[in-house]
Structures are given as C-alpha cells and as structure tokens.
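B., you asked whether I could sanity-check this one before it goes into the benchmark set. Here's the sequence:
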Amino acid sequence: MKLSVYNVRLRIATILLASLSIVHAEIRSRADLPTTPPADSAEAERVRIWVPIHRQSRCRVTVDILNDSNSVVCHLADRLMSQGYYNFYWDKKDDSGEFVRPGEYVFVVNDCGRKSYGEVTAQFQEWERAGRIYPPEEKWSTNVGFELLVDSAVVSVNIYNRRGGLVDNPIVDSLMNRGKYKFEWLPLEKVPRGIYTLKLTVGDFTHAVEIGYRP
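And here's what the prediction gave me:
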C-alpha cells in the first residue's frame, strides 16, 4: 500500500543531517595548533576536510569539491575564519542536493589565496541512498519530512533526549513505500520543553537530526 502521509502518534520529520557539518576548536597560541588532524571514525575520515588556520587575522576561506573533470560539484564552505582548526564533513551530495556517484573526489581549500588540496571518498552503505530527509523550517518545531526513494523499506523512528536516553519510539519497523512523508511529533506522555534528537532508520541506515519541542 502506498502511503503519502503517514499520521501516527508521532507525525515526524527529519532533516538531512546537514549539507555541511563543522567542528571548530579555538586555540590560544600557534603552538597549540596540532600538526595532524585528530582521529575520527573510518566513515568520517573518508569525507572529512581538516582545515588548520595558523594566521591570527580573520580571512575568507572557501572549500570546494571537484570531480574527475575538475568541475566543482559542491561549494562546501565560504566563510570568514579566524585562527584555529576546523573539521568539515561532506555529506556526499552536490549543490543540488543529489548524491554524487561513488568514487574519489578532490577538495580545494582557498585560505586568503593560499590553496591546499586533498581527497575525499564518496562511499555508500546499502541503504544510505534509499531516503532523503529535510529540515524543519523553524527551530522550535517537531514538523519534519522525508522522502523514500525505494519501495518496501523498513522504517523506524526514535526520539532521544540530550543525554541519549530514549524518549519515544513512535514508528517501529513499519513497511513503507516510496514517496514523500510529513510528520509532527506529538508525544503521548508529558515531556519537558527542549531540543531532542530524532533518529530515522531506513533499512539499516540511520539519519539523525535535532528538533525543538515546546508544549
């Protein structure tokens, strides 16, 4: 049965974890700046771009992802940055929001005219490209949406608090077909106002996104 809107006690939603995730560490002096990036998971290492900034003045930095034809597929970052080190994580999508083809890609970091290069890898898990998630339009919203790109996908939704504790599991191993879905989380039990993590699992791949709940 094809479902276009799946209203259950949580009509959820979820976003793309972000087309761009940034982790920034401030440093007190140039001596504190590490010479090598900190360790990360194997999956994160494949899509991480480590950008150490040694200069003390703020300057515009861009990060672009190029394919094997030297064409830019993703403008990952364009922002002012001060001294410190930055981890950028590419979501393996192009500027139109579509997943790129599997393979090796080159990244170019332009720091005030000084360019550096490296490689990132678009490697996908079996169910990773079976769905697409969209962000809520407002911070304090539990309205999220996602799109399934395959039929007969097993879908689960769980809600967690900031401590990682399970708060609700409104959808458990539900068989759903391709299409767009909109959901709003309406907890049956009283929960405090706050920021929660919604985890959407399609097949064996889990997406996570923050949602804001206020009674």
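One thing to flag: The first strand starts at residue 10 and ends at 12. Otherwise nothing jumped out at me.
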